[in-house]
Specification:
InterPro entries: Ribosomal_bL28/bL31-like_sf, Ribosomal_bL31, Ribosomal_bL31_B, Ribosomal_bL31_sf. The protein is of the alpha+beta class. Helices cover 15% and strands 31% of the residues. It is elongated and about 60 Å long.
Length: 84
């Protein structure tokens, strides 16, 4: 590996899947403002909308994750074109 191109500030960070409340700890350099305490240790917290524990490809279950109402927004804007 080339020297001087990789960050030096790797630390344990908690990633929390907001769709199923699953958490996992890994090393990262991500900057976070929130923290969480697990087993008496305080970690930086990064909230994610989807992870391998909730993604249909990894779970084998097809489910629609619509956190921002994007499907409803699309249907309101374009609707069913065949009715007109």
């Amino acid at each position: 590996m080339k020297k001087g191109i990789h960050p030096e500030n790797y630390r344990p960070v908690v990633f929390k899947d907001m769709s199923n409340e699953d958490i996992f700890i890994t090393r990262s350099t991500i900057a976070t403002k929130e923290t969480i305490e697990i087993d008496g240790v305080t970690y930086p917290l990064c909230k994610v909308e989807i992870s391998s524990t909730s993604h249909p490809f990894f779970t084998g279950k097809a489910k629609l994750v619509d956190t921002a109402g994007r499907v409803d927004k699309f249907m309101n804007r374009y609707g069913d074109r065949k009715k007109k």
